[in-house]
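ok so for the tutorial part 2 we go from a plain amino acid sequence to predicted structure tokens. step 1 is just haveing the sequence, like this:
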Amino acid sequence: MPPTRPAPAPPPPEKKTSTLKKIVYVIILLVALSILLQILGVGVVNKRESDTLIEQPHAD
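step 2 — the prediction. this is what the tokens look like for a chain of 60 residues:
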């Protein structure tokens, strides 16, 4: 009797990551990146300069 090859093992089932989980990860990543950029001072929101002239009525 000739030696027989065993049947190849079935491939492991692919893990399906839900689309919702991917969306949540992307949102968390974007929020963290935004906070990091704000800390570094490269944020989208530009801070007002403190020495901006504001018109005030003259006190006579």
